[in-house]
Amino acid sequence: MFQVVEELYEAGVKKPLQLNSALLNRGISGHSMKQLNNFLTRLKTKVQGPATISYLELEEWCSQHSIQPEEDDCAYVVHHDVSPTSGVHVIMSTKRLLANAAQSEVVHLDATYKLTWNGFPVIIAGVSDQARQFFPVVFGVMQAETSEEYGLLLNKMKTAVEEVSGKTFEPRIVVADCADAITTAISQVFPEAKRGHCWFHVKKAAETHLRRESKDMQAICKADIANLQLCYCQDQFDMAAQLALNKWRQLWPDSGFPAYFEDQYVARYGGWFEGFDLRAPSTNNGLESLNGSIKTNHTLRERLPVGRFVVAAQSMIRDWSRDLTGRRQFQDTPIADLAVMTKAHQYLQQEKVVVQVGEDSFFVRSGEELTLSNEQVDAYVQMVEGNPQSFDEFVDHRFSMWRVQDTGNRTEAMAMWCTCPEGLKKFVCKHSLAIGSLFGLIDFSDVARAMPVGRKRKRGRPTLARPALEHQ
Ligand SMILES: [Zn+2]
């Protein structure tokens, strides 16, 4: 059998399952998958050579590339410590990537989508901007995924960003998966930063745990968790989470899921709802898709010899850096693109009633309903920000109207945030733009220019319907 496996392997059949079916096709059976896997591991080592690297070789290369270059996009080694006793630590970046990071208050780091090189974890940390674009900052080949190693990476990133930009680098929030090693590292390097938990990971983990439950329960819990994720402040999340747990415990008294969810995603890892930080992405999707593309493009293959690996890494980091000179610029305010501007323009023409409460809060009905009374707004505030009796009652009210909050004293539309799902996730929506336009903060002339040709339009700027603004 082993002779046949070797032949198949050389012919390009390299995956255990493919190999197994090829063997069965040839009438060879009686082996277990475990035997096949073990043999495959030995075969790989024989074919590719042992996965060893020379510390001396790597250390020399790092030393040669440790001097900060003149050129902004030239990748260099920000920090390294390579020896048989301390292990492998190589952290690289460019001046442009580091200077870019200084503009951000949102850091992303992840341990889930693993890239490795000769068994060493490759860890990328980056930042995001107000247009929710992700920008890599440092590329690290580290010894292990421990709190010390993450701490070292974050610490060297902080020092390098500060050195290049001349400003202190104190992020407001660090978003990562739920790994405790990362939490410890963050609290040591950025003690003031909030610890955000990637919503995508929480969702996946909850779904996996729910698989043992009935289809009914799965569907209800998934929907409830998605609604919980749209809470827009901490008090609301605390209250709504307890209501959801009560609901589940009543419906399924024998299930272990409520206890699991409460322990994990309410008590320990609670930083995954939108209101945890209204101006930071709630997922690490930008970072993960970068990791994914590195993996699928085989830019950095697992067993590249050290010389080729560092050269490949260097050119990849240079490309990230050059990206910043083109269309991918750092945005410090959310971007209202033509699509959302058009929606806002159409929304205004519906002449929905806007109820103003106090100086800075504006309420509109969701859905088709145009009217809205002060009593309805009162009931909403009571329910959603006060004391609902059940989770379902909370959800019904929560999504019955949207609240636009002005945090900028009528100075800019982008300082208005809205509680609708799009507003929370994209930082800008038709409601915040429409309210902004009531105060002259939005100019719709581009929308008018982009209207389909042939539709009759008055000359000059279109006039805007002004929704009734009711003071309470
Ligand atoms: Zn909105």
From TrEMBL:
List the molecular function annotations (GO) for this entry: zinc ion binding
What is this protein called in UniProt?
SWIM-type domain-containing protein
Q: What keywords sit in the KW lines?
A: Metal-binding, Zinc, Zinc-finger
Decide whether keyword NADP is in the record. no
Q: Which domain of life is it from?
A: Eukaryota
Q: Any idea where the SWIM-type domain is?
A: 402-440
Q: Which organism is it from?
A: Amphibalanus amphitrite (Striped barnacle)
The UniProt record lists the keyword Cytoplasm: no
Biological process (GO) annotations held by this record are:
regulation of DNA-templated transcription
Q: Which InterPro entries match?
A: FHY3/FAR1, MULE_transposase_dom, Znf_SWIM
